[in-house]
Amino acid sequence: MRQAAASVPLAAGRPAPKSSSAASSGSGSRTRGNPLPLLDQRARGARFYSHLVRSVLNTPESTGIGCWSFNPYVGCEFGCTYCYARFAHRYVLERARDTGRVSSAEFAKLRGPNGWEGFEHQIFVKDRSALLEALDRDLPRLLSRNVSGDGETLLIGSSTDPYQPAERRFEITKAALERLLREHGLTIGIITKSSLICRDTELLAALSQRHRVLVNVSLISTDPALIKLLEARSPAPHVRLRTLRRLTQCGVTAGVLVAPILPGITDSLENLRLLLEAAKAHGACFAHPSPLRLYPAVRPLLLPVIQQRFPSLAARYREAYHGLGRAPKEYHAALVRRFERIAQVIGIPTQSEPRAAAGVERQLNLWPEQRP
Question: Half-sphere exposure of 173 toward its Cβ, with a 13 Å CA cutoff?
């Protein structure tokens, strides 16, 4: 049950109820020390703030992920322990503090007692009107590259889930997809764990007539206990598999994004086989693997879980993941080989990186499988 919040109603979604304090404040201007405009809050603690933006599309050069990207929300209610996107939430807060939109005290409160809780409890909702105006400004750059023959891809949900529970109310993702109906010729990828995407099956089908649309249902295992340990507030595996089936039955090209694959935990032949068999049975059109990225912002959350539930792996994680936190190249290559081999036997096309050189399969043996 949602509690109505005393807030300044903005255009980030359906208007929040006005309160007497909002009415008396007039425009609700963002002066130094004032909290950000609060749109809503949930009984279980999540709070939603309006986030004005001037630009929303991230270029491949700025992110290094090889494609254009877009995230309707900063922060995510699913709050997976391994999520690498927490740094983006911190960046938005730091920018708000440095520009005087929040005080130092409010900054500390929004980040959380340990500096990371805010990512899943203090969600920034990109203002709908500002977002659509920003898309009008940003899309010409993307489209001009696409016309030049570069085959540009726009990835929605590269950092946070575009169909997280907040989308049910604010519909920012839906508004962006409706705007994209006016264009054509792009490859649009969407990453989500949520069944809420099924709300937009007709819209996705219409988009597929104008663009190449690929929906990636994110799933790391079919083991409910493991999902509960690592993704406590995310939909259960069977819910995501049903979502996959419904999307494909509605004519949407959908598959599974097996990411992140955790060394020694979800990279075993058995886990990958069971997952890919289930995906195939639910109509997956493709499967894509990606190993864990253990960035500094993730370590305080994930490493204690590894230490407690998989103690024999803790030292290996600390040793293998250093510097920028990417998986060792040899391990990554061996993992891709294993994944592609299993997928080929099961009959699911893969969208993996180039196959690795022979002989690196032994790297997987450095991570003996562990169970919680």
Answer: 32
Q: What does the block give as tokens for 172?
A: 């920012």
DSSP-assigned letters across all residues of 65-134: SSSEEE-SEES-TT--TT-TTHHHHHHHHHHHHHTTSS-HHHHHHHH-TTSSTHHHHEEEEEPHHHHHHH
- Strand bridging mode 287-291 / 254-261: parallel
Q: Are 348 and 255 in contact (CB under 8 A)?
A: yes
pLDDT of residue 363: 38
Tokens 């405009």 found at: 37
Per-residue pLDDT at 247 = 98
On whether the CB atoms of residues 314 and 306 are closer than 8 A, the answer is yes
- The rounded distance, in Å, linking the Cα atoms of 118 and 79 is 10
Which pair of tokens denotes residue 236?
A: 């259960």
* Helix/strand/coil for 72: coil
Cis before residue 260, ω within 30 degrees of 0? yes
**Which amino acid, one-letter code, is at 179?**
R
Assign 3-class secondary structure to 306-362. Answer: HHHHCHHHHHHHHHHCCCCCCCCHHHHHHHHHHHHHHHHHHCCCECCCCCCCCCHHH
Rounded CA-CA distance 174/72 in Å is: 10
Evaluate whether 321 touches 257 at the Cβ level (below 8 Å): no
* 292, 297, 300, 304 alpha-carbon torsion, rounded to 10°: -10
Q: Which is nearest to 145 in space by CA: 59, 273, 256, 80? A: 59
Helices 201-208 and 237-249 meet at what angle, rounded to 10?
50
* Distance (Å, whole) CA 327 – CA 330: 8
- The tokens for 313 are 């792996």
> Cα–Cα distance between 22 and 42 in angstroms, integer?
19
For residue 82 the two structure tokens come to 């391994």
Q: Length of the chain, please?
A: 372
Q: Rounded to the nearest 10 degrees, how much is the dihedral formed by the CA atoms of 346, 349, 353, 354?
A: 90
Distance CA 191, CA 297 (A): 21
Mark the ranges of the chain whose per-residue pLDDT is less than 70.
1-35, 148-151, 351-372
Helix (H/G/I), strand (E/B), else coil: 73 = strand
pLDDT at 35: 60
pLDDT for position 24: 34
Look-up: residue for tokens 């990225």? 293
